[in-house]
Design goal:
Elements: H1 2-6, H2 8-38, H3 41-51, H4 54-85, H5 90-112, H6 114-118, H7 122-145, H8 150-172, H9 184-218, H10 221-237, H11 239-258, H12 260-287, H13 289-296, H14 304-311, H15 314-320
Helix pairs in contact: 2-4, 2-5, 2-7, 2-9, 2-10, 3-4, 3-11, 4-5, 5-8, 7-8, 10-14, 11-12, 12-15, 13-14
């Protein structure tokens, strides 16, 4: 979390309100694509990898890899087409294509990393995530130093994703299948199982990020940038519940199969911890909003303080969701 925030103050000061608004708009578009095309595939993959064995496990993993590639590529092309047709700024259209490529690589890596999560090799999962954030932040800082411009920040996600993908493949090589499957029947079964989750997840993904996208159409570029400075802080902090639940998910999956009493107990504890941590973070961020904006965005972003206080309320529901 700290590593992810390190480069943000330098990015905002380098890009300014307008270009940073473009960056966050593209990030929101790509995040929604990722959420919709992800469609619960990683959670399903962890569950199946935890409960299947032998050839069945490997075949399911291969089908998941193939389906992930097709869905994500289609989502990126569709999103870029929509932004172009609806008259979005050229920087947003181009950024969607570049960052979409980074998303395709990142989600592929996430699928290949399923065996690490399912086998509770959390140490390696953490190392990979830290590696990604270090590479990404380093590339952001390099782009600031050389004044590379907005496009360089979009390409940074592609490079960071490639580094993570290569590292993941080295970890799982010889232990899990690497070649994707093109079995449409298997894809159909997976989609039918994950569709209810995808619909539910879409609501949470869209309501939180649609404001940034809409502002790029109906508001000024500067106001979008003011909103984006606060949004970015909340967006980074909101990754905490995902990390927490991902860590405990293999235990929940096995309990769901073998021990309903244990599952009920574990879910209750996760709910209670989520409520406490989410509430404390929301209060803390609201109180510290002036300081946070001063550090992250600097002069010219004073109006972002009230935005951050309003957005901090979303942390409670993000944890519970």
């Amino acid at each position: 979390l700290t590593i992810a925030l390190v480069a943000v103050p330098f990015m905002i000061r380098e890009l300014g309100a307008v270009d940073y608004g473009y960056y966050i708009t593209v990030s929101s578009i790509v995040f929604i694509i990722g959420g919709l095309t992800e469609a619960g595939l990683t959670a399903l993959g962890v569950r199946e990898y935890s409960t299947l064995a032998g050839a069945d496990r490997h075949e399911f993993q291969r089908s998941l890899i193939g389906l992930r590639l097709v869905l994500t590529a289609a989502g990126v092309v569709l999103a870029a087409a929509v932004t172009w047709v609806t008259g979005a700024e050229p920087e947003i259209v181009t950024g969607t294509l570049i960052s979409g490529l980074g998303l395709l690589i990142a989600l592929s890596q996430q699928t290949y990393a399923i065996p690490l999560t399912a086998e509770l090799r959390i140490g390696w999962v953490t190392v990979l995530e830290v590696l990604k954030q270090v590479v990404l932040s380093s590339l952001f800082l390099l782009a600031v130093v050389v004044s590379a411009g907005l496009a360089a920040f979009f390409w940074a996600s592609v490079v960071a994703g490639l580094v993570m993908l290569v590292a993941t493949l080295l970890l799982v090589r010889g232990h899990a299948p690497l070649i994707p499957s093109r079995s449409r029947s298997a894809w159909g079964r997976v989609i039918r199982e994950t569709l209810p989750y995808a619909v539910a997840a879409a609501v949470g993904l869209i309501y939180f990020r649609i404001a940034v996208i809409l502002m790029s159409y109906v508001s000024t570029a500067e106001e979008t940038g003011i909103f984006s400075a606060a949004f970015r802080i909340v967006e980074v902090v909101a990754t905490l519940p995902l990390i927490m639940v991902t860590t405990v998910f293999p235990v929940l999956a096995r309990a769901a199969r073998d021990d309903q009493e244990r599952l009920s107990y574990a879910l209750q504890r996760v709910f209670e911890v989520s409520l406490i941590v989410g509430g404390l973070l929301a209060i803390g961020l609201a109180v510290a909003a002036p300081f946070a904006i001063e550090v992250v965005a600097g002069p010219g972003f004073e109006e972002s303080v009230e935005v951050l206080r309003l957005l901090s309320l979303a942390l409670v529901t993000s944890f519970l969701a």
